[in-house]
């Protein structure tokens, strides 16, 4: 992580790029675009300091110096809140059918046909005219079977095979693991993750004391008390992860809150940058 004094020099140099940006949010989005389009240039800087650069650039535009930026960095907190519902289970491809929704018919092994049950697969049955003797009552060659004693099986037309009565000849049947959907519920939940920075003491105190609330509470329940000029939304993204909780209301909210000065904060560029929620958080319901 780069020391703040060096960050100020870098931010002063970068500020020439953002002269037309008048708000913290617009600077942030333009900075984010520059990072994506000029990766070679920005690779020389520590990604953990990107947000601090944005704050210092804004501080230069607003006050002509870095004192405001130092105060924000010192007194700001980075928050994440994760919202997910009781039925918001993520889905994985069904292993049993590889996502197809169907599997080979168990009865015919995927052939669509079975051995004819009438002739046991031979295609021939005993001649009903001569009862298999190959001769008629007068001792002459049976005209029905021409002296063979057998005739073609009518049920399979002499082929020895019949349509599978389980799959109807389709050779496949609905996968019972996923009921034909091709996907199954996973142990993870879909959730929305909002990352924000705030220096609103009222909001910070409410979030830090949120464990004292009787009911699970979302960030929107706090917004009436938030000074919009003191809250900076970095991203709103959707991902999936594991959450440990003992309650199952319609919606569950999980809060994390850490001082900006102590947080290794990477600017979020896509949902894939999020990590699986596989460990306890600061505030969890």
User: What is the N-to-C order of secondary-structure elements (H for helix, E for strand)?
Assistant: HHHHHEEEEEEEEEHEE
- Shape verdict: rod-shaped
**Mean pLDDT, rounded to whole units?**
80
Structural class: alpha+beta
Q: What's the number of helices? A: 6
> How much helical structure, as a percent, in the residues?
10-25%
Radius of gyration: 36 Å
The tally of strands reads 11
Strand content: 15-25%
Distance between the termini: 33 Å
Report the sheet with the most strands, covering strand number, pairing sense and barrel closure.
5 strands, antiparallel
Unreliable spans: 268-285
* Number of spatially distinct domains: 2
Search tags:
single chain, 2 domains, alpha+beta, two-stranded antiparallel ribbon
What does this structure look like?
By secondary structure, the protein is α+β, with helices and mostly antiparallel strands. Helix 1 (4-14) crosses helix 4, helix 2 crosses helix 4 (50-63) and helix 4 (50-63) crosses helix 5 (67-75). Strands 1, 2, 9, 10 and 11 form a 5-stranded antiparallel β-sheet that branches. 21% of the residues lie in helices and 24% in strands.
């Amino acid at each position: 992580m780069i020391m703040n004094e060096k960050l100020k020099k870098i931010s002063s140099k970068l500020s020439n790029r953002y002269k037309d940006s008048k708000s913290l949010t617009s600077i942030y989005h333009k900075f984010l675009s520059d990072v994506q389009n000029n990766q070679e240039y920005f690779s020389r800087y520590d990604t953990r300091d990107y947000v601090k650069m944005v704050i210092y650039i804004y501080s230069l535009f607003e006050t002509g110096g870095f004192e405001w930026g130092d105060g924000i960095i010192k007194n700001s907190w980075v928050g994440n809140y994760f919202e997910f519902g009781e039925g918001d289970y993520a889905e994985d491809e069904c292993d049993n059918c590889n996502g197809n929704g169907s599997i080979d018919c168990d009865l015919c092994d995927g052939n669509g046909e079975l051995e004819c049950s009438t002739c046991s697969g031979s295609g021939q049955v005993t001649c009903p005219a001569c009862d298999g003797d190959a001769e008629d009552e007068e001792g002459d060659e049976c005209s029905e079977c021409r002296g063979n004693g057998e005739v073609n099986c009518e049920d399979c037309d002499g082929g020895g095979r019949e349509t599978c009565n389980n799959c109807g000849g389709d050779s496949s049947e609905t996968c019972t693991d996923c009921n034909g959907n091709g996907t199954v519920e996973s142990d993870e939940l879909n959730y929305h993750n909002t990352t924000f920075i705030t220096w609103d003491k009222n909001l910070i105190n409410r979030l830090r004391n949120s464990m004292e609330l009787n009911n699970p509470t979302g960030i929107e329940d706090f917004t009436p008390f938030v000074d919009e000029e003191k809250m900076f939304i970095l991203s709103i993204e959707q991902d999936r992860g594991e959450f440990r909780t003992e309650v199952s209301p319609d919606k569950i909210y999980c809060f994390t809150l850490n001082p900006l000065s102590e947080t290794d904060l990477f600017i979020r560029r896509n949902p894939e940058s999020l990590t699986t929620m596989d460990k306890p958080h600061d505030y969890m319901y």
